[in-house]
Amino acid sequence: MLETIIQGILLGGLYCIFALGLSLMFGVMRLTNIALGDQIIISGFIAIGMATVLGFNVLWIGLLLLPIAYISGFCFQGWVLNRTLSKDPLPSLVVTFGLSIVIQNTLQMVFGANPRSLDVGSLSTAGVELSPSLTVGVLPLIIFVSAIVCTFGLQWLFAHTAIGRSFRAVSDDREVAELMGLSAKRVFATATGLAFCLIALAGWFQGMRTTVSPSDGPSLLLFAFEAVIIGGMGSFWGTFLGAMVLGVTQQVGFHYDPGWGIWFGHLVFIVVLFIKPNGLFPKTKG
């Protein structure tokens, strides 16, 4: 059971990176990005394409994905999503839902329906021996540490920088923030650019740790959404802890039966909604 819990925590690290982009966009713009899961998948396929066609090293692929993702997110928010933002959330939901369908069908036409993965060589089998009977993979550890770094970085960004203060200002009261000289549209575009960097990182890790398939997007969106709701919408550390709960719960389910893991995660999500609708860790301090 100890090994199961450790594996669940490491899986939670991957779910945390899935969820941080969703949490960031919702926290700043009150926008739920329905296409997030498919954007993670397309990031994984772009990474695989770079490795296959251009022969890039896996580390260089990750470094190249980040600026591409930031520019894509900034332009997507500035040219498309900013036109849909209003008190009515329906237009932005429709746009991101439509984008989700477009991404899925485009990936199936270009790459087919077969799952693919990013070759990381010996890193995929490298492990760290914690005890004679317990070994954990190096790659899952890297992903978990990255989740901690990203969570800490976002919380620090919001609490201690001018960009973070502008994010909080337009989120709390957009009209007052604009009267004080902030351009809400530009702030939103910056936030989406950062969110797309997290999404690209998630796709890169997903392609390395397991496989990506054109139809996987909705399930990844669901895991991200459940992590955010379980943790609570108050902070990024809440999202991190919610992802840990989801990962451990799924691994405990897998421990008893291979078909129970995902179902256990959904069950905990529903129980949390009934008992604490605001999440287990709402408004934690960064």
Summarize the structure.
The chain has 11 helices and 2 strands, in the order ααααββααααααα. Helix content is 73%, strand content 3%. It is a multi-pass membrane protein.
Strand order of the largest sheet: 1-2
Distance between the termini: 31 Å
Beta-strand proportion:
under 5%
Q: How many H/I helices?
A: 11
Transmembrane segments: 6-28, 40-58, 64-81, 93-113, 133-158, 187-208, 220-246, 258-275
Protein name: Branched-chain amino acid ABC transporter permease
Membrane topology: Multi-pass membrane protein
Main location: membrane
How are the SSEs ordered, and which strands pair?
Elements: H1 2-29, H2 36-54, H3 58-79, H4 90-111, E1 127-131, E2 134-137, H5 138-160, H6 162-172, H7 174-179, H8 184-209, H9 217-231, H10 236-256, H11 261-275
Antiparallel strand pairs: 1-2
Give a written overview of the molecule:
This protein is mainly alpha-helical. It has one domain: ABC transporter involved in vitamin B12 uptake, BtuC. The chain is built from 11 helices and 2 strands; from the N terminus they run H-H-H-H-E-E-H-H-H-H-H-H-H. The protein has helices at residues 2-29, 36-54, 58-79, 90-111, 138-160, 162-172, 174-179, 184-209, 217-231, 236-256, 261-275, and strands at 127-131, 134-137. Strands 1-2 form a two-stranded antiparallel sheet. Helix 3 (58-79) packs antiparallel against helix 8, helix 5 runs antiparallel to helix 8 (184-209) and helix 5 runs antiparallel to helix 10 (236-256). The longest helix has 28 residues, at 2-29. The model has no long low-confidence stretch (mean pLDDT 88). This is Branched-chain amino acid ABC transporter permease. Keywords: Amino-acid transport, Cell membrane, Membrane, Transmembrane, Transmembrane helix, Transport.
